[in-house]
Amino acid sequence: MSLLGHSQYRTAVAVFLVGALLAGCGGVVYAPSDDQLPDGALLNKSIRAAVAKASENRVINDDNAPFSLASLESGGQSEVLYGWLEDAMAAELSSRGLAVADEGTTESASLIKYRFIECRVLNAKEGGGRVKRIGRTIIHLRVYGKEDGQLLWAGEYEGEYANVVPKSALAKLKDERIAQIGPAAPEGKKNPFLEPLLVTGITGALIYLFAASSSSQ
């Protein structure tokens, strides 16, 4: 193989490896390596990533505009996150040329209702004294038609934004003022430790009773 051929081969391999690496990132958008984002910035960016996907929904279009926005939750301690979510949705709709109805003029507007399923920062060891911090957001949306209020679509969208920082930087990047939202626990969730103990206890009791019965015979 000629020198030129070797060069082209190495280029092709490099392009393939980069493509494979990007494909394996699972849609996570990364910040520049020297950009140490605090919790709030990571969460805000992950919210915007989820909203960008949601805005591509087929029912969010000119025919159904204008849109009115309403939360399915009161916000509570997560009021800051809900404020970011509504701001992101209004900005995304406007950037796509879709009108957002003013408060009090919702009668002739389609309605988008929303709530968080998850909005939190996850940390994972990256090696070399570094940590990968992932802002992860999952939002639930419901879109209702403006004519009869019929439910047009309901579902979830996920957005992630990440960066890698030195482990020593974690303390200064954490923001306790933001009430993060974790995944909802299933109702009636069983204790993973209690159930095996109960099974073991019942099994032991049955063995004991069987042995006692056998010995008495």
Task: Describe what you observe in this structure.
The protein is of the alpha/beta class. The protein is built from five helices and five strands, in the order H-E-H-E-H-E-E-E-H-H. It has helices spanning 3-23, 39-54, 79-95, 170-173, 194-216, and strands spanning 29-30, 67-71, 110-127, 130-144, 151-166. It has a five-stranded mixed beta sheet with strand order 1-5-4-3-2. The termini are far apart.
Secondary structure layout plus pairing:
Elements lengths: L2 H21 L5 E2 L8 H16 L12 E5 L7 H17 L14 E18 L2 E15 L6 E16 L3 H4 L20 H23 L1
Parallel strand pairs: 1-5, 2-3
Antiparallel strand pairs: 3-4, 4-5
Instruction: Report the sheet-strand fraction.
Output: 25-35%
Distance between the termini: 87 Å
What is the annotated CATH architecture of the largest domain?
A: 2-Layer Sandwich
User: What's the helical proportion of residues?
Assistant: 25-40%
Mean pLDDT: 79
According to CATH, the fold-level topology of the largest domain is Double Stranded RNA Binding Domain
The top level CATH class name of the largest domain: Alpha Beta
Largest sheet: 5 strands, mixed
Low-confidence stretches: 11-25, 189-199, 205-210
Following the backbone from N to C, one meets helices and strands in this order, namely HEHEHEEEHH
**Number of domain units:** 2
> Oligomer, anyone?
single chain
Overall 3D geometry? elongated
Tell me how many strands there are.
5
Number of helices: 5
The computed structural class is alpha/beta
**Main sheet: strand order:** 1-5-4-3-2
Measured on Cα atoms, how large is the radius of gyration?
Answer: 26 Å
